[in-house]
Amino acid sequence: MNTPADIRQQVIQGDRNRALWVGSVISDIFGISSPVYLPWGEDRSLLPGGYGTGEDPVAENASEPTSMFGTPILGAVTFEGGTYSTYDRMSGRLIQGRYNDYTLPFSCICEFSRESHVITTGVLGNTGTVKELFGLGDWSISIRGIAVNGADRGKTSAHEQIKMLVKWQDINCAINVGGEVFESKSIYSIAIKSLDIQPIVAKYNVIPFQISAVSDEPLELTL
Questions:
Q1: Model pTM?
Q2: How far apart are alpha carbons 38 and 113 in whole angstroms?
Q3: How many whole angstroms from its chain centre is CA 192?
Q4: In the prediction, which pLDDT does 141 show?
Q5: CA 85, CA 175: separation in Å to the nearest integer?
Q6: Across the beta sheet with 78-79, what order do the strands follow?
Q7: Residue 117 pLDDT
Q8: d(Cα 174, Cα 214) in Å, to the nearest integer?
Q9: I need a labelling partner for 61 at 20 to 30 A (CA). Which of 117, 123, 170, 215 fits?
């Protein structure tokens, strides 16, 4: 299927059209009603109210990247560049390759879960158990997002973003990550377990994806 050479021709133009398009995508992917409301036929300005006199969140995060609507992106996720190992497809050997920093599509939502390892021993003649040893497991991480054309100000298409995610999944070692959502949990590197890509019928340039990963941290052995 041929696509226009100029990525700007594929980006939805106009704030009203963008809002309707975003609402349609959210409805198709997540199965919920469109959260976008437009006052059709009403010739009056709508002023926000009921939010108090707090500071402007846009002004507070002026240094953050912005979306196609000009709003700040909070919680952006970045795969940090460096030298990583991959398998050579011809020889099957590990080779070293250089990767640049890559910020995931701004639509990403991260979910985290972690279990505690607790060894218990039952006690005869009593209720409950004795907890002998505690430990923490790895963080299980799910990153859900949508690759769309022009999400990074028209630099890459949805399919180019997916190709980049596949390239990062080819890495055979832990990946350094950046972003407040990871740093707040002391997660600085992850290992990708799977990449799930689920295209939508009749939306060639809208590609939902999900990354399953676990946290990784170096272990130090003292002899």
A1: 0.70
A2: 37
A3: 13
A4: 96
A5: 10
A6: 102-103, 78-79, 175-178, 189-197, 206-215, 129-148, 109-122
A7: 86
A8: 9
A9: 215
Q: How many CB atoms lie within 10 A of CB 140?
A: 15
What is the rounded CA–CA span in Å between residue 188 and residue 141?
13
CA pair distance 71, 58, nearest whole angstrom: 7
**Cα(196)–Cα(166) distance, rounded to whole angstroms?**
10
Residue with tokens 């990525």: 7
- Spatial distance between the Cα atoms of 118 and 128, rounded to a whole number of angstroms: 14
Rounded-to-integer distance, Cα 159 and Cα 19, Å: 22
Burial class (CB in 10 A: 0-12, 13-18, 19+), 180: exposed
Mean pLDDT by 10 residues, the chain (223 residues): 47 60 67 57 56 52 60 82 91 91 89 90 83 86 88 74 94 93 94 92 86 86 65
Ramachandran category for residue 87: left, alpha or beta (phi over 0 → left; psi -120 to 50 → alpha):
beta
Contact (Cβ atoms closer than 8 angstroms) between residue 118 and residue 92: no
Contact 120, 131 (CB under 8 A): yes
- Where do the domains of the chain lie? 55-215
Fold of 55-215: Elongation Factor Tu (Ef-tu); domain 3 (2.40.30)
How many residues in total does the chain contain? 223
Nearest to 108 by CA among 76, 155, 139, 81: 76
